[in-house]
Amino acid sequence: MNHSSASVLRKQENQSAGATFILLGFSEYPDLQVPLLMVFLAIYMVTVVRNLGMILIIRINPKLYTPMYFFLSHLSFVDFCYSSVVTPKLLENLVVEDRIISFTGCIMQFFMACIFVVSETFMLAVMAYDRFVAVYNPLLCMVAMSPKLCYFLVAVSYSWSIVCSLTVTYFLLTLSFCGTNFINNFFCELAAIVAVSCSDPYISQKIILVSATFIEISSLVITLTSYAFIVLTVMKVPSAGRHPKAFSTCASHLTAITIFHGTILFLYCVLNSKASWLMVKVVSVFYTVVIPMLNPLIYSLRNKDVKEAVRKLINTKFFCFKI
């Protein structure tokens, strides 16, 4: 890099560092601020209780010490984290009139949200592989999915999500931002940040698009390949009565995958640049606020072991309370 290029880069960095962002959120609907506050606060409280409760139940119940529940506990942790990165700021902006967030704060919020969203993407892929192993060889599932392998897969998911998030954030930082910028969303979402850049975002947009596409496609390939092998394995089983039982073990996971990836693909592939920002906000609310609340519900409703563990925990607490 020559001297003039370095000077330009330093100038852009200094310019961006002094920039501030204002999260518009749902400010164009003043009459809905209080109802939205109550709804989002209720959703967030349910999200925290359900996800932390799921982690607690899995940790204290020896019957749930299996690879599936190990991955589920980490999925609940990821859901809790990325909801907590986004929702508190959303709630704050529904109360206060000053919706300013610093450049550093905005970039950090995007970076942290990106880490946990990408983590969820690959955690769901890892869980799909676990379901394949469970269906392919149920008797040796605990051997094939050893604790060492489970920890390795989770570590890879987290590590890869950090690498991907650093890459996307780096190219986002190559853009320059001037003065006060109005982010037309309730959090520092990628498209909303790029839209207010005062430099040409073309190259950064393309690189970010390629990175995001690679993340989504690679996780979907793992997931869809696992389920393709699951279907082939089940079809080879002579007894037709075992088909529903085999597929039932995957039902919760399939539901979670469909909702999560369907929302992401709709937001970044179906909605185009001409789509209304209101639609973008509504879809963003669904995958950052609603889905973290839904995942524990999906797994607990369809899972007898979790429901039994919850029932025992409640009965124990009630019994101790009565004594």
Report the CATH C-level class: Mainly Alpha
CATH superfamily: Rhodopsin 7-helix transmembrane proteins
* Elements, N to C (H/E): HEHHEHHHEHHHHH
CATH topology-level fold name: Rhopdopsin 7-helix transmembrane proteins
Helical/strand content category? mainly alpha
- The overall pLDDT, averaged over residues, is 81
* Total separate domains: 1
Oligomer: single chain
What's the tally of helices?
11
**Morphology:** globular
| Helicity range | over 70%
Strand order of the largest sheet: 2-1-3
Account of the 3D structure:
With 323 residues, the protein is mainly alpha-helical. The chain has one domain (3-322): Rhopdopsin 7-helix transmembrane proteins, CATH 1.20.1070. It contains 11 helices and 3 strands; from the N terminus they run αβααβαααβααααα. It has a 3-stranded mixed β-sheet. The N and C termini lie far apart (74 Å).
List keywords for this structure.
disordered C terminus; about 325 residues; mainly alpha; single chain; Rhopdopsin 7-helix transmembrane proteins; about 80% helix; about 5% strand
